[in-house]
Amino acid sequence: MELSSLTAVSPIDGRYADKTAPLRPIFSEFGLIHRRVRVEIAWLLALCDEPALPEAPALTPAQRAEIQAIADGFSLADARRVKEIEATTRHDVKAVEYLIREKLPADCAVLSEFIHFACTSEDINNMAHALQLQDGLAVLRTEQKRLENTLAAFAQATLALPMLAHTHGQPASPTTLGKELAVFVHRLRRQSAQIDAVELPAKMNGAVGNYNAHLAAAPQVDWPALARRVIESFGLHQNPLTTQIESHDGMAELFDALQRWNQVLLDLDRDIWLYVSMRYLKQKVVAGEVGSSTMPHKINPIDFENSEGNIGLANAILGHLARKLPVSRMQRDLTDSTAIRNIGAGFAYTLIAVASTLRGLSRMSPNEEALAADLDHAWEVLAEPIQTVMRRYGVPEAYEKLKALTRGHAMTRETIHAFIDTLEIPEADKNRLRAMTPADYIGLAAQTGC
Question: pTM for the whole thing?
Answer without folding.
Answer: 0.93
